[in-house]
Amino acid sequence: MSAEATNPNGVSPEFRPLTQPAALPKTAQGRRRGRPRIDLRRLGRAALLGPTTRGRTPDAIAHVAEAHRAHHPDADLSILSRAYVLAESSHRGQMRKSGEPYITHPLAVTLILAELGAETTTLTASLLHDTVEDTEVTLDQVREQFGNEVCFLVDGVTKLEKVDYGAAAEPETFRKMLVATGNDVRVMSIKLADRLHNMRTLGVMRPEKQARIAKVTHDVLIPLAERLGVQALKTELEDLVFAILQPDDYARTRALIDGNAAGGDPLAPIAENVRGVLKEAGITAEVLVRPRHSVSVHRVSRKRGELRGTDFGRLLVLVGEDADCYAVLGELHTCFTPVISEFKDFIASPKFNLYQSLHTAVAGADGAVAEILIRTHQMHKVAEAGVVALGNPYAQPDGSDAAADGERADPTRPGWLSRLLEWQESTPDPDAFWSSLRADLAQDREITVFRSDGGTLGLPAGASCVDAAYAQYGEAAHACIGARVNGRLATLSTVLRDGDSVELLLAHDAASGPSPDWLEHARTPAARIAIEGWLADADSAHDAGPTKDAQPGAETVRATGAAPALPCAPAAAEGDSRPVVDNAVADLPDAGVRLAGCCTPVPPDQVLGFVVRGGVVTVHREGCAAVARMRALGREPVGVRWQEGTAELRVTLVAESFGRPHLLADLTEAIATAGAEVVSATVEPPSEQRVRHTYTLQLTDAAGLPALMRAMREVAGVYDVSRAQHPATA
Length: 730
Fold this sequence. Notes:
Layout: H1 26-29, H2 40-48, H3 62-71, H4 78-91, H5 104-116, H6 120-127, H7 131-134, H8 139-146, H9 148-156, H10 162-165, H11 169-183, H12 186-200, H13 207-227, H14 231-245, H15 247-262, H16 267-280, E1 286-291, H17 294-304, E2 313-319, H18 322-335, E3 337-338, E4 344-345, E5 358-363, E6 369-376, H19 377-385, H20 416-424, H21 430-441, E7 446-451, E8 456-460, H22 465-473, E9 480-485, E10 488-490, E11 501-506, H23 525-541, H24 554-559, E12 580-581, E13 584-586, E14 593-595, E15 607-611, E16 617-621, H25 625-632, E17 638-642, E18 650-658, H26 663-673, E19 677-683, E20 690-698, H27 705-713, E21 718-723
Parallel strand pairs: 2-6, 7-11, 14-16
Antiparallel strand pairs: 1-2, 3-5, 4-5, 5-6, 7-8, 9-10, 9-11, 12-13, 13-17, 15-16, 15-17, 18-20, 18-21, 19-20
Helix pairs in contact: 3-5, 4-6, 5-6, 5-12, 6-9, 6-12, 8-9, 9-11, 9-12, 11-20, 12-13, 12-14, 13-14, 14-15, 15-17
């Protein structure tokens, strides 16, 4: 928890308001507003003197109390006083590498959260966040004195011991922290504030350690701050990391900012014009010039090349009500020349991290473009503090805790934290978890797509239909064969855009599965983990699968994710409890039966079965190359027989398609060309532009079944062909 040092510029660390990052030159700080800096040396002396007169708030946390009361006027400060006394006495004698008493670190972290508006429980845990990790205080003591909630938050941010976990300590600590965050998002709020203060005071660390800490901050904590909507922490962390990892670019960017500041602020007269327009329209609004931070300026310069003076900041218009935001927008677009391509409505469609605002831009007479943000005061609070602004997001109207009735709801939208927790359970290996976490958080933004049932899915930018399938259906998405995006048929590799509508098409074939090619299109860890798991199981189950000697069409059937279905035939004779699939009965009580995709056996083939993972019996034709390989491995075959009365080779296939002219004729021609005889055929009335054809077919050779199904799938408009879920009839 405690990266002790002075700040990167060599200045003694001090408590600073969030708007005054330590690494920025004074010229930049002069443009920001906040409380005066607080002398840590004075606070250190106050901390060493211990608590003051009973009933009074200790002098060392007076600044925390002031910031807290600004957001919560009725807050009870007594618990903060007790937490400070325990923290100070526990850390007494410990010093930071910068020379201040260690207690100044939890005080600084608590001040950061207090200025963001965190509620009392979070601040209490923040004061105690290093006690269990670095002192003799135990979790039981914290629970006894401050309750289960504070104890949970302290435990959530306590590191795992490297002596116990070795190299896995860091990833496993983050896993533990994320799991705790899933139950209480305030855990991550404390961690982010803790990292911010440590980054502010990183200067006395060795350069290589600075770079390592900055890299983890960049890869994990900054994306988490973005997803939790805590922009005030995110932007300062970005600038501090930027200064360490890209010092040359940082220096050039600071020079650009300083040069622009020396020439006056070109946004000031535009802001004055906006104030005049809104006053004349009778709209009460506060218009501020909001300077860009260093990383933002760097990004804009890379995007636009040479910067104008108006590129170094944006105008922020704050109003009272949502309707006022749109009234301001109307006045601006009426009285100025709007840049329509810059308009975004994040009020009607909030971002995934709770952010709401209207974005627009207007062009001046000289061609300079001024970007403008329009939001209410409450939206601005949430935009700056994110989930911290929610207070206790789990509190019920009656004051009870929502967790009392079970698992707490995910306060993030649209539940990205819940999705993260789901896939991490599938990655027990610390290295795999660490790399998957970084890859998941590396996505710069999320998109929202609409499901056919009216729900929504939150996905990372660049996600494909494969990701959407697993986000919506979980492992059932193994049977996905295609999608309709915005009403049009699309492949699973199609990249989705924000606002797309997606209808995912699942095969009726229970044996269908993903192709290895799907991994090339999967962006989310959940999708990749599920696909890799299925492929690993399939390789195990078919470890003697298709070879050069296997029947034609086997690889094609598996790769398309649409292998023949495995429907159940009529029950076996009374008293025979052995499962029956496609009229096959295994001589192994209570075992499931599955027909091998490599040789697709059907009556009257001579068949054998082999027990694979899960106790399922896979049925192969005796001549299948897989049988020889199974025997060579010492695997004992299981007897399998066909039900009596199935001498004729007859199969019922169902073709799912989109309606179009001449479809029936084209399907019939494909069947005839494949050498099959149509015994009967039915066509159901179209439903939502879909048509289902059911054919009972007579084949002269069972080996032709894969080729027949493949030929039917290749007919234009057909998106699935599967075996019927009932026996073929004459």
